[in-house]
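Fold this: Phosphatidylinositol-specific phospholipase C X domain-containing protein
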Amino acid sequence: MGAQWSKQIDRQKAVMAEKKILRELQERCGSDYPGSSWHPTDRKNWMSGLDPNKVHINEIVWPGTHNSATNKIGIKIITRPFAQCQSLSVYEQLVCGARVLDIRVEQNGKVCHGILTTYDVDVVIEDVRRFVSETESEIIILEIRTEVGRKDPPGFEKYLWEQLGELLIHQDDNVFEKTIAEILPRRIICVWRPQGLHVGKETSPLWSSGYLRDNWINTDLPATKFESNMKYLSHQQPVTTRNYFYRVENTVTPQPDNPVVCVKAVTNRIHGYGRLFIAQCFQQNCVNRLQIFSIDFISEDFVDACVGLTWARIQGKA
């Protein structure tokens, strides 16, 4: 018991030390960058506000949400704090400005996170379709994967075709160089990641998993995650020369050997440093590689940070 208690104290000291590293980095370097003071007048329609005729897909810094459909997961108060990564519904996230969704499903078609489940994936699809019907030029990247350790929902690829068919932007390397206006009226890039073997067909509009990449590490230490994100991002090609999306997640993950295991308390260690990360991308000369930037519990400020950088790129300032 004494050894376990000592280990937990050491883990808490490590967390405090890493929080101090990020705090001091922000105090020393600041979080300003080209576009950091720019804010969209309407987050629900921020792509429209940037002019779809001028915005190329590979110029966009896409605000994303991690474990997007977990606002009602598990049992309120009892199990929900251990798996909930978003407090807003998928529709509300899109209205707030999120444009990349991370959806996990299991065999029966329910959304899940680890061992906990929530509503049917139909709820997600309905939220996406509602948002698309209320806007004209907003493009969404919808990633749907079978959760690790679960089986694929039967016939799921066909289900996605039937539900989103006329809205789907078909898998095509040329999409990256096109403007939003050139892609319309299609609105959704759907990346399907089954656990089983998925052989993409030329006729399929769904995008295979290789088109959305990341380098997720399992840690609750904020500076460790921050530095890992920067290292892996710096190894990517610039956005204008690659034909895949690359995601950086401004999140940390609860660990079983630490007494603090509620998602919100843990992710708050890094949550407020999205702008710092972008500023450091400029300082370390890899901002031209930043593309999808995701977070737990998305905020308006995080959306503005991404949209501001997108605006700066369009203006030739970044």
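Strands lie at 62-65, 100-105, 110-113, 116-120, 140-146, 188-193, 212-214, 245-249, 292-295. The domain at 20-314 is CATH 3.20.20.190 (TIM Barrel).
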